[in-house]
Amino acid sequence: MTTLKSMEARLQAQSALHFLPYIGPEYGVAAPRIAMLGEAAHGPAPAGQNRSFVRSVVRTALDESAKGMKGAIAKADELAFVIYNLLEAIRIAAHLLMPLMPQTSAEALRRLSCEDEAASDDLKGICAWGLLAGGQPVEKGDPLFPRLA
User: Fold this and answer.
1) Is 0.70 surpassed by the pTM of this model?
2) Which helix (H) or strand (E) holds 64?
3) Rounded to an integer, what distance in angstroms lies between the CA atom of residue 54 and that of residue 6?
4) Taking Cα atoms as reference points, which of 4, 6, 3, 50 lies closest to residue 30?
5) Among 66, 92, 137, 149, which has the highest number of CB atoms less than 10 A from its own CB?
6) Distance of alpha carbon 34 from alpha carbon 60, whole angstroms
7) Tens-digit pLDDT profile for residues 98-118
8) Checking phi first, is residue 130 left (phi over 0); if not, alpha (psi -120 to 50) or beta?
9) Distance between CA atoms of 62 and 17, rounded to whole angstroms?
10) Rounded distance, CA 18 to CA 41, Å?
């Protein structure tokens, strides 16, 4: 989850203009500072248009930052999709391996917060794709298949 602090840190790391602390109630006093930073990045302000120049500098920086955040959000969504599919495949594999490795399969299902599924007799129904409930905790533990020394 993206927080305001992490977003500010990301924006400040990516932007040549470090003006985020000057937005909000401090904006009025910060206009000269923003103008100075804007001139350093974008060249001199047009004569007599300092206020509109400051607004355009802020708008440009915010637009660039928003593009970066949209990309980060899209990547987070892709990662969540991949992780969900991996966990769903593990859940189904645990059900299919239940007759051969009952303890290991039960442990895998328990770690996925699906221990109530272990008692199901309907293999076809329980192995349907998409039954893994989102938002459930996944428990980390010792390897189910440790390496042999």
Assistant:
1) no
2) helix 50-96
3) 25
4) 50
5) 92
6) 12
7) 999 999 999 999 999 998 888
8) left
9) 10
10) 11
